[in-house]
Design goal:
The complex is a heterodimer. By secondary structure, chain A is an alpha/beta fold. Helices cover 32% and strands 22% of the residues of chain A. Chain A contains 12 helices and 12 strands. In chain A, the strands form 2 sheets. An 8-stranded mixed beta sheet of chain A has the order 6-7-8-3-9-10-12-11, with helices on both faces. In chain A, strands 2-1-4-5 form a 4-stranded antiparallel beta sheet. Chain A starts with 9 loop residues before the first strand and ends in a 7-residue tail after the last helix. The C terminus of chain A is likely disordered. Chain B is mainly α. Chain B has one domain: MetI-like (MetI-like fold, Orthogonal Bundle). Chain B is elongated. The chains are: A alpha/beta, B mainly alpha. At the A-B interface, helix 2, helix 3, helix 5, helix 6 and helix 7 of A face helix 1, helix 2, helix 10 and helix 11 of B.
């Protein structure tokens, strides 16, 4: 953690990513800012459609150009702004310095190419390795992601692997070039619980071994508790709360976070039923003014629907920031909002 | 990207992945290394492409494709061996033995100049096969590139290219042949150009459709996330997924090309006489049909046999491959 206090490897500043729906451009991600240090895992949680995946695609520069675009803000990676970087430059960073693992291991591998080829290809492409050298490195990677008898499996096709094993192959592909930042978009959602745990511990292990930063996107708060250093909670395209993981679980401050945590089923508590958050996320084309959670919020006051709340640090915890008029009134900390 | 949670199936948990379990036997064949292999066999297996494995599987699943393949290979062998096995020179005239029926000396009889029909058939097969193969290879290459590019790029480019292909497609093959020959003159090369022009559009279409399907797959998105260039994605990641369909199409179009070549030769737009071509022979037979039926029957049967064998081959392949490719992985 020697570099943790230095400049963050990734700093997203006021990111706005918009999509064209029904003739107009609507922001799917609005004013999102966060930073990730080297060797740190930031979890982004939120329900479907809250902008988690769009944030990841924006960082990767993979927002589909036909109907989406990064409309504002900066994505500084190792001091360089990725927004506006041309495709050629972006391609050199993708897969080499920033990698991504996808949700669906069953369909994220090319069915007609051997897994050995697919892992070696990244090295061959980004590192100009010869085939032999790349194959040797790929074999080593298969060992590292704990594929049993990797040498025998090297020339197998994806359909000969189970879901968990395919996700390991995906991880090996993503980590082939030792990226400085790994984006994991719900990498365990499609897996069985036991396999989830294995993949999570593998990711944590490799992250530590490589000293890379990781952004872990999930809607599973149990997974967050076990892997993240910090957590950003997103709602309707905005970060509503961001805090170190222990702080967030101990003191969920935004009403949405609180309700989210309360809706986790727990074995040690007899509640007689799960509490669900009533209502729905507002549609992308019909975002309300003011706090976007106001319609579903039990604490709603007139100010909530009148003015947009700001993401401000709590009085006693500067690294715990919340976007809520009632729970984190900005007047208290207005002077300190800048440096946190 | 759907975010619905997948229900946990506890029954699957231990057998699905490589988790040793005290009581359950490990499921063999998936994550087990039940087939120990030497380093050599690893290299061997890497060498054989998946597309061709699929084709091989298709063959074994379908008896008609075997019959078609064997029949076609026999015809190819006869054509290749024509200089060695044909009993006479295809151009040797024997004016005393003209328009004879089948006999021991001339198995398939003779034509109006006394030339041996069997020998002319064998030599004609060479010409038919060379013309159709070269023209279909060219059409496959050009049409394939156009189709993959058009499907991959999509949008307005795709629209314009495909409309151009539709224009090309709207010319019947004979009209296309007439146009090319009228502009460039009748020759073997121009015949190939004419046939290739007819076949480019169908190949572009057959390459485009699966490209559009495949490019939406997650693994292509994963390729982009790995920073691969579009050219690399098209050639290394999309092409192997669709090559089987293109090859099936090629076997079917080979038959069509032979038919087109024969039709053009029949109406006198093909290779000039006295060179032996099947279409030209049918034409001669047609002129002498009342004197000697065998003159047109045998070349017609030859065309029928080739077209039939290629269609059986192609149909068999297509039937076997279709559900696999359409269903996806």
């Amino acid at each position: 953690m020697t570099t943790a206090t230095d400049a963050p490897i990734l700093a997203v500043e006021n990111l706005v990513t918009a999509f064209r729906t029904g003739g107009g451009w609507h922001p799917a991600v609005r004013d999102v800012s966060f930073a990730v240090q080297r060797n740190e895992t930031l979890a982004i949680v939120g329900e479907s459609g809250c902008g988690k995946s769009v944030t990841a695609l924006s960082i990767m520069g993979l927002v589909p150009p036909a109907n989406g675009r990064v409309a504002g803000g900066h994505i500084r990676f190792a001091g360089r702004d990725l927004v506006g970087l041309d495709e050629e430059e972006m391609r050199k960073i993708r897969g080499d310095r920033i990698s991504m693992i996808f949700q669906e291991p069953m369909t994220s591998l090319n069915p007609v190419l051997t897994i050995g080829f697919q892992i070696a290809e990244a090295l061959h492409y980004h590192r100009d390795m010869g085939r032999g050298e790349a194959n040797a490195a790929a074999l080593e990677l298969l060992d590292q992601v704990k594929i049993p008898s990797a040498r025998q499996r090297f020339a197998d096709y994806p359909h000969q692997f189970s879901g968990g094993m395919r996700q390991r192959v995906m991880i090996a592909m993503a980590l082939a070039c030792r990226p400085e930042l790994l984006l994991a978009d719900e990498p365990t959602t499609a897996l069985d619980v036991t396999i989830q745990a294995q993949v999570l511990s593998l990711l944590a292990e490799l992250k530590a071994a490589y000293g890379m930063a990781m952004i872990f996107i999930t809607h599973n708060l149990g997974v967050v508790a076990s892997i993240a250093d910090r957590v950003a909670v997103m709602y309707a395209g905005e970060i509503v709360e961001i805090a170190p993981v222990n702080e967030l679980f101990a003191r969920p401050t935004h009403p949405y976070t609180e309700l989210l945590l309360r809706s986790i089923p727990r074995v040690d508590r007899d509640t007689g039923g799960l509490s669900a958050i009533t209502g729905q996320v507002p549609a992308i084309g019909a975002m309300p003014s003011g706090c976007r959670f106001a319609a579903r919020c039990p604490l709603r006051e007139p100010i909530c629907t009148a003015r947009d709340p700001l993401l401000v640090p709590l009085a006693d915890a500067p690294d715990h920031r919340v976007r809520c008029w009632l729970r984190a009134p900005p007047s208290e900390m207005a002077s300190e909002a800048g440096h946190a | 990207m759907g975010e619905a949670g997948v229900p946990h199936e506890f029954g699957r948990a231990f057998t699905d992945d490589n988790v040793p379990h005290p009581t359950l036997p490990r499921k063999r064949g998936r994550d087990d290394d039940c087939t120990p292999m030497s380093a050599d066999s690893v290299v061997l297996r890497r060498g054989s492409s998946y597309a061709f494995q699929q084709l091989a599987r298709a063959f074994n699943a379908n008896a008609t494709s075997w019959i078609g393949l064997i029949a076609f290979l026999v015809i190819v062998a006869l054509a290749v061996l024509a200089p060695l096995i044909s009993p006479y020179d295809p151009l040797d005239q024997d004016i005393l033995a003209r328009l004879e029926g089948p006999s021991v000396a001339h198995w398939f009889g003779t034509d109006s100049y006394g030339r041996d029909i069997l020998s002319r058939l064998l030599w004609g097969a060479r010409l038919s096969l060379v013309i159709s193969t070269v023209s279909i290879l060219a059409a496959m290459l050009i049409g394939g590139v156009i189709g993959i590019l058009s499907g991959y790029v999509g949008g307005r480019f795709d629209m314009v290219v495909m409309q151009a292909m539709d224009v090309l497609l709207s010319f019947p093959s004979l009209i296309m042949g007439l146009m090319v020959v009228a502009m460039l003159g009748a020759s073997m090369g121009n015949l190939m150009i004419a046939i290739a022009l007819t076949a480019i559009a169908p190949f572009a279409r057959i390459a485009r459709a699966p490209t559009i399907l495949v490019k939406e797959r997650d693994y292509i998105e994963a390729c982009r996330a790995l920073g691969y260039s579009d050219l690399r994605i098209m050639t290394i990641h999309i092409l192997p997924n669709i090559v089987a369909e293109i090859l099936v199409m090629a076997s079917l179009w080979l038959a069509t090309a032979i038919r087109i070549e024969a039709s053009l030769s029949f109406i006198g737009l093909g290779v000039r006489p006295p060179t032996a071509t099947w279409g030209g022979m049918i034409r001669e037979g047609f002129e002498n049909i009342l004197d000697s039926a065998s003159l047109s029957i045998f070349p017609s049967l030859a065309i029928l046999l080739v077209v039939f064998s290629l269609n059986m081959l192609g149909d068999g392949l297509r039937d076997a491959i279709d559900p696999k490719l359409r269903g996806g992985e």
